[in-house]
Predict the 3D structure of the following.
Amino acid sequence: MPEGPEVESVRLELRQLISKTVETIQLTPLSQKYSKYKGKQPLFDQFRKKRILDIVRFGKFLVWRFDGIEAVILNHLGMSGKWCLFMDIENLPTNASHIKVIVKLKDPPNAVFDDTRNFGQFKVFHSLEEVKQYNPIRYLGVDGLASPFPLKEFLTRLAKRNFENKPVGEVLLNQRLVAGVGNIYKTESLFHAKINPLRKVGTLSDAEREELGLAIGEILQKALQDKGSTMAFQPYELPSGTTGNAQQWHKVYNREGEPCYVCNTEITRIVQKNRSTFYCPQCQQ
């Protein structure tokens, strides 16, 4: 699933749509096979002739705002969702095979939301305030991509008693702690901080907690600079059709059995919360 750096990279490319006027937001016939889209076209008709005011991010969610109307659209990429930009509305992009939404604008480019596995969201809310009360957003933790990283608030949240007896490798996936961190950057941040993912949060020293927070901020910013990670099993791509490059500097993620770049020890894989975690047993004792 795309993490914070991937979603923010998508948002930055979609910003070229800001100030453009919507002709139609059309749910495709394919979308009508799924209950979350079925019969929802009238909700999207209210955005006709409205100008796109902004596209903002909350953790891994994108929210589309429009001029002259309080209603907004909440978008989540899910496991495989992606946006594709294209110029000619008569010729949909060839790299989109499961299009659920077509956004036709008065002036190109236009956009389609393609979602192969159908875990994504494209949903109308009455207002931005209603979105902020939506539980997956209402309870988000610190924004991992905030610059500078909000270290003090991170440390306060990490100190909560409900995290104390849980492995840090599991806790970092909790969006109520840090919004935007997923399995890839959790793994890389723990390696960068030299912390074993099996360590209980309560055993971490003050210095280790601070080092972890700084590592998260650094890793996420580095990933954003490289426009996210694209791998064979995560075919993430940007609206322009380009891919991310962050995978080129991964130190441990998806490197089970390969030698650590620092000490040459074989990278180990374990499963936490049904997700693969990779670490170096020597560097992360």
About this structure: The chain has two domains: 4-138, 142-279. The radius of gyration is 20 Å. Residues 206-225 form the longest helix (20 residues).
